Amino acid sequence: MPTEVNKEVRAHLLKQITQHVVRDRFVLMAALLIWLCLEVAMIAIHFIKGASFYKMTGDVTAIFQAPPWIGFYSQAGLLLWSAAASFCLLAYKSLRSRSNHATSSRFLLGTGCFTLLLLIDDTYLLHETVLPHYGIPQILVQSAYLAGSFIYLCCFRKALLASNYVLLLAAGTGLGLSILSDTAHLWLLDRHLFEDSLKLFGIAFWAAYCFSISKSALTGPLSKD
Question: Which UniProt keywords apply (predicted)?
């Protein structure tokens, strides 16, 4: 009798696991692909640049034996970027199958992907360090982001006007002034304090805006489809 019960439990468990794998196969494949890409990148850097695996996998403060508060302000911005992207992409996932939310879904997907791009750029210092190192001027990258922002505004203008755009204006003001401070070398008191405070101000309001549009989209279309 116990053997039969164990067989039934194992069969039921196997059935559940199979159902979960089939249902979320694309998510599992995406997770596996991301992991593989990062592994390949790390191994390539190790052999090409001679970097140790520890320096690529370890925590920065631990590697350099730095105080835990080193870079905490910048890391807070990364957390807010991540939260903002998560709000939009999760809401998009919930709404994409609803026919009356087509515009809202595209808006959330576009906003989430744009935020994800900014997160990656900010995390790995693409426009500040990496791309200029390979001959792409920082001003060119910033111009590309500006053009992308303009396209974003044009494509989703109806959804933007139907949303709480006060939060968006606050975010744009903070980020815009931060970029202006960096490029024109204009600041008060301390350059890093002034520039990065404006930047985090903008990121915080962008995260708030993403939360707002995600919440609104889940309760009803942001604009008429």
Answer: Membrane, Transmembrane, Transmembrane helix
Which DSSP category does 220 fall into?
S
Q: Which DSSP state fits 19?
A: H
Q: For residues 98 and 105, what is the distance between their CA atoms, to the nearest angstrom?
A: 9
Which of 192, 208, 214, 182 has its CA nearest to residue 80? 208
Entry pTM: 0.83
First to last CA, the chain: 59
Contact call for residues 60 and 69 (beta carbons, < 8 A): no
User: What is the rounded distance in angstroms from the CA atom of residue 65 to the CA atom of residue 59?
Assistant: 10
Residue 224 has pLDDT above 60, yes or no: no
The answer to whether the CB of 87 falls within 8 A of the CB of 206 is no
Report how far residue 117's alpha carbon sits from residue 158's, in angstroms, rounded to the nearest whole number.
23
